[in-house]
Amino acid sequence: MNLTNQQLAVSNLAQEARQLIMKIELVLQQLIPSPPASLTADQQQKVKLILKVVEKRFGVPSHRVLDRTKEQHVVDARHAAMWLVARGMALDNLRIARIFRRDRKLVIHAIKRMNDLLANEPAFNETMRLAQKDLGMKG
User: Fold this and answer.
1) Alpha-carbon gap, residue 125 to 55, rounded angstroms
2) Tens digits of per-residue pLDDT, 16-47?
3) I need a surface site. Which of 5, 64, 67, 98 has the fewest CB within 10 A?
């Protein structure tokens, strides 16, 4: 199968774009601040661990979970992280909202949505069960 010059150029540009995105994501990881100082050092570490587990289970880098992206797979990961923080750390919705730089109402929505998904989506339930296991939480 021979590719035309135009197809090769498009393929090369796509590869360069993927490499550039990876570099940008690495730089953004360095720029994302730690969770708010209103958390204890232990709580900050727990939030970071939850973000790492969400990254592992959902394939979404921590900085993307914390940014304003509305891509559905990122939103799903963000909501899962909020749910894990709520369940694993027993923080109130306002503090969770501050961690994720969101509104308290969005946290309430995210937790409700996660509970609905857990009740109705076996594959999602399994992903969250594994995330909880990674965190040493009981499922």
Assistant:
1) 16
2) 888 888 777 666 655 555 555 578 889 999 99
3) 5
Q: Could you give the domains of the chain?
A: 32-134 (1.10.1750.10)
For the cut 90, the answer to whether the pLDDT of residue 113 exceeds it is yes
Tokens of 11: 């393929």
CA-to-CA distance for 120 and 89, rounded, in angstroms?
A: 24
pLDDT of amino acid 34 = 52
Write out the chain in H/E/C secondary structure.
CCCCHHHHHHHHHHHHHHHHHHHHHHHHHHHCCCCCCCCCHHHHHHHHHHHHHHHHHHCCCHHHHHCCCCCHHHHHHHHHHHHHHHHHHCCCHHHHHHHCCCCHHHHHHHHHHHHHHHHHCHHHHHHHHHHHHHCCCCC
Torsion, Cα of 90, 101, 114, 45 (10° steps) = -50
